Structure to design on (196 residues):
């Protein structure tokens, strides 16, 4: 049954109900996730410090609160799965943006990517570390007890193909020694072969 919060959210963002269906979890025998994937539609938002209002009290910017709510609801869609406390975790995050109109031609070339823009990456703000921080802060106390459990991470900012909406994707799973050994240079692997 839908909570009052979910009902309010689904009325405000009806397109996100279906998109959250991309969120999923694979539970282990002990009930702790082996794998969790959260999908949050909409332009990725970065973490930012609470600001002080003109009359004194501090507040968290509304876009940050909204993105934290969206991450929470995506997590709720995984049956509120929670990693066992004291588990070291890996967080891989993708922040996907729609391309600016300036990347495309005009007139008879409208919708056609201009030459030289095929491999262009979204190198401007927001900084990727602030995007990741919002995920960790949003899921602390929910998917895991504290974001200090995240010991390995990988992130990407990229443009989505035309016709695809912006979105944030977070994949969380228990940390593996293979990644740690690879990063420390103890393993010689070809990452393109998907050995990790």
């Amino acid at each position: 049954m839908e909570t009052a919060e979910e009902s309010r959210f689904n009325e405000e963002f009806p397109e996100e109900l279906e998109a959250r269906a991309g969120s999923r979890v694979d539970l282990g025998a002990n009930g702790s996730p082996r794998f969790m994937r959260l999908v949050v539609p909409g332009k990725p938002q970065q973490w930012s410090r609470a600001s002080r209002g003109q009359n004194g009290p501090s507040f968290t910017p509304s876009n940050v609160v909204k993105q934290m709510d969206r991450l929470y609801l995506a997590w709720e869609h995984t049956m509120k799965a929670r990693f066992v406390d004291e588990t070291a975790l890996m967080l891989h995050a993708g922040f996907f943006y729609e391309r600016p109109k300036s990347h495309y031609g005009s007139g008879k070339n409208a919708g056609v990517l201009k030459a030289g823009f095929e491999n262009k990456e979204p190198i401007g703000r927001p900084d990727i570390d602030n995007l990741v921080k919002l995920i960790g802060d949003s899921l602390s106390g929910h998917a895991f007890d504290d974001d200090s459990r995240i010991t390995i991470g990988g992130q990407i900012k990229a443009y989505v193909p035309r016709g695809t909406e912006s979105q944030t994707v977070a994949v969380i799973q228990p940390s593996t020694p293979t990644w740690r050994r690879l990063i420390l240079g103890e393993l010689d692997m070809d990452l393109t072969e998907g050995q990790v």
Notes: The chain has five helices and seven strands. The first strand starts at residue 24 and ends at 27. The chain has one domain: 4-96+125-193.
